[in-house]
Amino acid sequence: MSDQIVSLEKEESVGIITMNRPPVNGMDADLVTELLNVFRKAEEDEQIRVIVVTSKVEGIFSAGLDISTMTSGEGKVPVDIQKFFNDIQKIGKPVVAAINGHALGGGCELSLVCDFRFMARGKATIGQTEVNLGIIPGAGGTQRLPRLIGVGKATELLFKGSRLKADEAREIGLVHQVFEAEKLMEGSLAYARDLAAQAPRAIRLIKKCIHQGLDNDLESGLKLESGSFAEVITTKDALEGFTAFMEKRQPHFKGE
To answer: Which end of the chain has the least Cβ crowding within 10 Å, N or C?
Structure first.
């Protein structure tokens, strides 16, 4: 697995996706294509309930677009990264980004399509730094960042091309939790295991309602929620949840 640019391992019900494209996990066609392929494998694996994505490259989560592909003067991105990231966001399982190094440009955008962002305290920074190269984010940064942290702060970060350290990013809500570097994977996996105990179909529908609802007006979002509620209320997991509550025990959800 060491020579794969993207690998998938399983630890119980958690799938760990690891990028390994030195020196900076540059978002070229090969990395982005393989990343989506591995995400889809994890989604199809019924044993995997939660996905954690991280990096094997020392000090780097991903530094974004592979600049070497842009120096020809043509100004063309070799792959539609925005579409690939949209597809990753639609994965019906919780996704945790374990940011163990710099997450800049497309690396930050990759973290934004994840449901949770955990970051290592230390030298690692995160940000949409494209303006420093005379360009703008092209994989969702101008749209997802304001939705996540608010228009005012996002505008400032996008205009200045700022790089935030872990505690700064947590303070504005860009990342959920911060860990010491040596504790990042341990903390991320512990959180993922807790999520894995939840009802898979309910999680999938909640995720669908959040993302599709935000793309529409409130009335449409509420209609989507009602339909999803009707879909999940008759499942075996719902019955298990109700029964466990009455019996004062922890439920055991099977995704049925």
So the answer is: N
